[in-house]
Amino acid sequence: MTESNAANRTVLINGALLPDALDERMIHDVVHGFYAAIRNDALLGPIFNGAIAPEAWPVHLAKMCDFWSSMLLKTGRYDGRPLSPHLGISGLGEEHFRRWLKLFRSTVKRLCPPEVAALFMERALRIAHSFRLAVAYNRGEDTLAIAPISEGSL
Fold first, then answer.
1. From CA 36, how far away is CA 109, in angstroms rounded?
2. How many angstroms separate the CA atoms of 31 and 68, rounded?
3. Whole-number Cα distances in Å, 61 to 1, 16, 34, 90, 95
4. Residues 94, 83: Cα–Cα separation, whole Å
5. Residues in CB range of 32: below 8 A, 6 or more apart
6. What is the chain's pLDDT, residue by residue, as a tens digit (154 residues)?
7. What is the C-alpha to C-alpha distance for residues 99 and 104, in angstroms, rounded to an integer?
8. In CATH, what class is 19-139+146-153?
């Protein structure tokens, strides 16, 4: 798809037109702002900084921009498997996902208009639940006991 075709297509999210404010620049700002917070966080920083070498962060950030662009703008740029790296993190649990969601919410509320922040959060909550289920399943744990984390419970 050419750049002009991509700019002219209509993107619907949950049956509604994508807010005009949501664009590649906003996705870039959210991704970079969020991972800056992650890297400095006492709980999550050691996990991410241990898994991603300092020189690999630019590549990771670009990949995460592609991921969110594909998720929200439907660009199709991301062609990876985001779950796999998380399955090998020992001790990854609900407290980590809750902290991830809190930092993500703080970032999108700071950088995005409310309707865009809501789109990001809706996707992030679904991703967190999916990852929590997959991690538990991979460990042989009971997945039926895992309820989704709601934004109101953060």
1. 15
2. 8
3. 23, 28, 10, 23, 23
4. 16
5. 61
6. 444 434 545 565 666 677 888 999 999 999 999 999 999 999 999 999 998 999 999 999 999 999 999 999 999 999 888 888 888 788 888 899 999 999 999 999 999 999 999 999 999 999 999 999 999 998 888 999 898 998 888 8
7. 8
8. mainly alpha
Q: Which two tokens stand for residue 84?
A: 């796999």
